[in-house]
Design goal:
By secondary structure, the protein is an alpha/beta fold. The protein has one domain: Rossmann fold (3-Layer(aba) Sandwich). The chain contains 7 helices and 9 strands; from the N terminus they run E-E-H-H-H-E-H-E-E-H-E-H-E-H-E-E. The longest helix has 22 residues. About 35% of the residues are buried. Its EC number is 2.1.1.166. Belongs to the class I-like SAM-binding methyltransferase superfamily. RNA methyltransferase RlmE family.
Protein backbone atom coordinates (compact mmCIF):
# COMPACT_ATOMS: atom_id res chain seq x y z
CA UNK A 1 0.00 0.00 0.00
CA UNK A 2 1.26 3.52 -0.75
CA UNK A 3 0.45 7.09 0.18
CA UNK A 4 1.71 10.48 -0.93
CA UNK A 5 4.23 12.31 1.22
CA UNK A 6 5.63 15.83 1.04
CA UNK A 7 6.49 16.97 -2.46
CA UNK A 8 3.95 14.63 -3.99
CA UNK A 9 6.20 11.57 -3.74
CA UNK A 10 4.57 8.24 -3.10
CA UNK A 11 5.49 6.57 0.19
CA UNK A 12 5.10 2.85 0.73
CA UNK A 13 3.84 1.51 4.03
CA UNK A 14 6.04 -1.25 5.43
CA UNK A 15 4.28 -4.58 5.07
CA UNK A 16 4.70 -7.41 7.55
CA UNK A 17 6.74 -9.57 5.18
CA UNK A 18 8.57 -6.77 3.37
CA UNK A 19 12.07 -5.71 4.38
CA UNK A 20 13.09 -2.08 4.72
CA UNK A 21 15.34 -2.47 1.68
CA UNK A 22 12.52 -3.79 -0.49
CA UNK A 23 10.26 -0.97 0.73
CA UNK A 24 12.89 1.59 -0.33
CA UNK A 25 13.23 -0.14 -3.73
CA UNK A 26 9.46 -0.05 -4.25
CA UNK A 27 9.31 3.63 -3.34
CA UNK A 28 12.11 4.37 -5.78
CA UNK A 29 10.28 2.50 -8.54
CA UNK A 30 7.01 4.30 -7.87
CA UNK A 31 8.70 7.71 -7.99
CA UNK A 32 11.10 7.05 -10.88
CA UNK A 33 10.04 9.10 -13.95
CA UNK A 34 11.80 6.62 -16.26
CA UNK A 35 9.77 3.74 -14.82
CA UNK A 36 6.58 5.73 -15.34
CA UNK A 37 7.60 6.69 -18.86
CA UNK A 38 8.48 3.10 -19.74
CA UNK A 39 5.02 1.95 -18.69
CA UNK A 40 3.37 4.73 -20.69
CA UNK A 41 5.42 4.05 -23.83
CA UNK A 42 5.29 0.26 -23.69
CA UNK A 43 8.93 -0.49 -22.86
CA UNK A 44 9.64 -3.46 -20.64
CA UNK A 45 12.15 -1.63 -18.47
CA UNK A 46 13.55 1.80 -17.73
CA UNK A 47 16.85 0.53 -19.20
CA UNK A 48 15.39 1.22 -22.66
CA UNK A 49 16.10 4.92 -22.13
CA UNK A 50 19.79 4.26 -21.49
CA UNK A 51 20.10 2.95 -25.05
CA UNK A 52 17.87 5.73 -26.41
CA UNK A 53 20.10 8.34 -24.77
CA UNK A 54 23.30 6.65 -25.93
CA UNK A 55 21.89 6.45 -29.45
CA UNK A 56 20.96 10.13 -29.42
CA UNK A 57 24.49 11.01 -28.33
CA UNK A 58 26.51 8.60 -30.50
CA UNK A 59 24.16 7.64 -33.36
CA UNK A 60 24.63 3.96 -32.60
CA UNK A 61 21.52 2.76 -34.44
CA UNK A 62 21.97 4.90 -37.53
CA UNK A 63 21.82 2.62 -40.56
CA UNK A 64 22.26 -0.66 -38.67
CA UNK A 65 20.92 -3.83 -40.27
CA UNK A 66 22.13 -6.58 -37.90
CA UNK A 67 22.27 -6.21 -34.11
CA UNK A 68 23.22 -8.60 -31.29
CA UNK A 69 21.83 -7.94 -27.79
CA UNK A 70 23.82 -9.74 -25.07
CA UNK A 71 21.93 -9.91 -21.78
CA UNK A 72 18.68 -9.15 -23.56
CA UNK A 73 16.21 -9.83 -20.69
CA UNK A 74 13.70 -8.27 -20.13
CA UNK A 75 14.00 -6.89 -23.66
CA UNK A 76 13.97 -3.11 -23.39
CA UNK A 77 17.04 -2.61 -25.55
CA UNK A 78 15.79 -5.00 -28.23
CA UNK A 79 12.49 -3.08 -28.25
CA UNK A 80 14.37 0.18 -28.86
CA UNK A 81 16.28 -1.34 -31.77
CA UNK A 82 13.09 -2.72 -33.32
CA UNK A 83 11.27 0.61 -33.00
CA UNK A 84 14.12 2.68 -34.40
CA UNK A 85 15.29 0.17 -37.01
CA UNK A 86 12.21 -2.00 -37.78
CA UNK A 87 13.91 -3.73 -40.73
CA UNK A 88 16.98 -4.77 -38.72
CA UNK A 89 17.75 -8.37 -37.82
CA UNK A 90 18.00 -8.56 -34.03
CA UNK A 91 19.33 -11.53 -32.06
CA UNK A 92 19.36 -11.68 -28.25
CA UNK A 93 20.69 -14.04 -25.60
CA UNK A 94 20.23 -14.30 -21.84
CA UNK A 95 20.40 -16.87 -19.07
CA UNK A 96 16.89 -15.83 -18.09
CA UNK A 97 13.79 -16.43 -20.15
CA UNK A 98 12.70 -13.46 -22.26
CA UNK A 99 9.11 -13.00 -23.33
CA UNK A 100 8.89 -13.05 -27.15
CA UNK A 101 9.57 -9.81 -29.01
CA UNK A 102 8.26 -9.51 -32.55
CA UNK A 103 11.11 -9.63 -35.03
CA UNK A 104 13.74 -10.70 -32.47
CA UNK A 105 15.39 -14.13 -32.33
CA UNK A 106 15.95 -15.07 -28.68
CA UNK A 107 18.19 -17.69 -27.08
CA UNK A 108 17.90 -18.69 -23.43
CA UNK A 109 21.39 -19.89 -22.60
CA UNK A 110 24.73 -18.85 -21.14
CA UNK A 111 26.58 -16.50 -23.48
CA UNK A 112 29.82 -18.08 -22.21
CA UNK A 113 28.75 -21.53 -23.44
CA UNK A 114 31.02 -22.83 -26.20
CA UNK A 115 28.18 -23.09 -28.71
CA UNK A 116 26.65 -19.64 -28.04
CA UNK A 117 28.75 -17.48 -30.43
CA UNK A 118 28.11 -19.78 -33.39
CA UNK A 119 24.36 -19.85 -32.72
CA UNK A 120 24.19 -16.06 -32.53
CA UNK A 121 26.26 -15.62 -35.69
CA UNK A 122 24.16 -18.13 -37.63
CA UNK A 123 20.90 -16.49 -36.54
CA UNK A 124 22.26 -13.09 -37.51
CA UNK A 125 22.83 -14.16 -41.09
CA UNK A 126 25.92 -12.04 -41.65
CA UNK A 127 28.37 -9.67 -39.92
CA UNK A 128 26.85 -7.52 -37.19
CA UNK A 129 26.65 -3.74 -37.42
CA UNK A 130 26.26 -3.35 -33.67
CA UNK A 131 26.89 -5.56 -30.63
CA UNK A 132 25.20 -4.44 -27.42
CA UNK A 133 25.99 -5.86 -24.00
CA UNK A 134 23.99 -4.94 -20.92
CA UNK A 135 25.26 -8.04 -19.13
CA UNK A 136 26.31 -7.95 -15.49
CA UNK A 137 27.32 -10.85 -13.28
CA UNK A 138 25.10 -11.81 -10.36
CA UNK A 139 26.53 -10.01 -7.35
CA UNK A 140 27.84 -11.88 -4.31
CA UNK A 141 28.26 -8.80 -2.11
CA UNK A 142 32.06 -8.65 -2.36
CA UNK A 143 33.01 -5.58 -4.40
CA UNK A 144 36.24 -6.91 -5.90
CA UNK A 145 34.71 -10.27 -6.78
CA UNK A 146 31.65 -8.64 -8.34
CA UNK A 147 33.89 -6.35 -10.38
CA UNK A 148 36.05 -9.22 -11.67
CA UNK A 149 33.00 -11.29 -12.61
CA UNK A 150 31.42 -8.45 -14.55
CA UNK A 151 34.69 -7.55 -16.28
CA UNK A 152 35.04 -11.17 -17.40
CA UNK A 153 31.69 -10.81 -19.18
CA UNK A 154 32.82 -7.53 -20.76
CA UNK A 155 36.00 -9.22 -22.02
CA UNK A 156 34.02 -12.07 -23.55
CA UNK A 157 31.57 -9.65 -25.14
CA UNK A 158 34.40 -7.51 -26.56
CA UNK A 159 36.12 -10.54 -28.07
CA UNK A 160 32.82 -11.68 -29.59
CA UNK A 161 32.18 -8.21 -31.00
CA UNK A 162 35.56 -8.00 -32.69
CA UNK A 163 35.01 -11.40 -34.29
CA UNK A 164 31.41 -10.73 -35.31
CA UNK A 165 31.21 -7.08 -36.38
CA UNK A 166 31.72 -5.84 -39.90
CA UNK A 167 34.49 -3.29 -40.41
CA UNK A 168 33.09 0.03 -39.21
CA UNK A 169 30.73 -1.63 -36.72
CA UNK A 170 30.29 -0.60 -33.08
CA UNK A 171 30.26 -2.21 -29.64
CA UNK A 172 28.58 -1.00 -26.43
CA UNK A 173 28.99 -2.67 -23.04
CA UNK A 174 28.02 -1.98 -19.45
CA UNK A 175 30.97 -1.65 -17.10
CA UNK A 176 31.31 -0.59 -13.48
CA UNK A 177 32.44 2.61 -11.76
CA UNK A 178 35.76 3.82 -13.13
CA UNK A 179 35.02 2.40 -16.56
CA UNK A 180 36.53 -0.59 -18.28
CA UNK A 181 39.82 -2.02 -17.04
CA UNK A 182 42.95 -0.81 -18.80
CA UNK A 183 43.46 -4.20 -20.46
CA UNK A 184 40.00 -4.09 -22.00
CA UNK A 185 40.40 -0.46 -23.05
CA UNK A 186 43.72 -1.32 -24.67
CA UNK A 187 42.13 -4.23 -26.51
CA UNK A 188 39.30 -2.04 -27.78
CA UNK A 189 41.66 0.74 -28.86
CA UNK A 190 43.64 -1.76 -30.92
CA UNK A 191 40.50 -2.81 -32.75
CA UNK A 192 38.32 0.33 -32.87
CA UNK A 193 39.03 3.84 -34.05
CA UNK A 194 37.20 5.53 -31.15
CA UNK A 195 36.72 4.31 -27.55
CA UNK A 196 34.77 6.38 -25.01
CA UNK A 197 32.97 6.04 -21.69
CA UNK A 198 29.53 7.48 -20.99
CA UNK A 199 26.92 7.50 -18.26
CA UNK A 200 23.50 8.19 -19.78
CA UNK A 201 21.09 10.31 -17.71
CA UNK A 202 18.80 7.28 -17.31
CA UNK A 203 21.48 5.55 -15.22
CA UNK A 204 20.64 6.29 -11.61
CA UNK A 205 23.04 8.72 -9.95
CA UNK A 206 23.84 6.24 -7.22
CA UNK A 207 24.51 3.43 -9.68
CA UNK A 208 28.08 2.29 -10.34
CA UNK A 209 27.33 1.48 -13.97
CA UNK A 210 28.96 3.20 -16.94
CA UNK A 211 29.06 2.21 -20.59
CA UNK A 212 32.06 1.80 -22.84
CA UNK A 213 31.37 2.74 -26.47
CA UNK A 214 33.76 1.45 -29.14
CA UNK A 215 33.06 2.83 -32.61
CA UNK A 216 34.24 1.95 -36.11
CA UNK A 217 35.90 -1.45 -36.00
CA UNK A 218 39.20 -1.37 -37.85
CA UNK A 219 39.46 -3.61 -40.90
CA UNK A 220 43.13 -4.48 -40.71
CA UNK A 221 43.62 -5.78 -37.17
CA UNK A 222 43.55 -9.53 -36.46
CA UNK A 223 41.30 -10.39 -33.51
CA UNK A 224 43.09 -11.23 -30.27
CA UNK A 225 41.64 -11.90 -26.85
CA UNK A 226 41.92 -9.24 -24.12
CA UNK A 227 44.96 -9.74 -21.93
Amino acid sequence: MSRFGSGGKQRVKTARNRTAASTRWLERQLNDPYVQRAKAEGYRSRAAYKLIELDERFGLLRGVGRVVDLGVTPGGWAQVVRRRRPQATVVGIDLLETDPIEGVTLFQMDFLADEAPALLTEALGGPADLVLSDMAANTVGHQQTDHLRTMALVEAAADFAVRTLRPGGSFVAKVLAGGADSEIVGFLKRHFEVVKHAKPPASRKGSSEWYVIAERLKATVTADAPA
